[in-house]
Amino acid sequence: MRNRSRRQREPRSGDHGTAAPRRGPGTWRGDRARGRGVRGARPPGGRTVRRSTEAAGVPAALRVAAAYAWRLLVVGAAVYVVFVTLGRFHLVTLAVFLALVLTALLEPLTNALTRWMPRAAAVTTGLLLSVVLLFGVLSLIGANVAVEWPGLREVFSGGLTRIERWLQGPPFHLRPGALSHLQSWVSRFVASNRANLIGTAVSGVGRLAEVLTVGALALFCSIFFLHSGTRMWQWFGGRLPERRRHAVRTAGRTAWTTFTGYTRGIVIIAATNAVLVGLALFVLRVPLVLPLAVLEFFAAFIPLVGSPVALAVAAVVALASRGPLVAMLVVLLIVVIGQLEGHVLHPLVMSRAVRLHPVVVALAVVCGGVTAGVLGAVVAVPLVSVVWSVYGALSLRPLPPAV
Question: Residue 92 CB: number of other CB atoms within 10 A?
Answer without folding.
Answer: 14
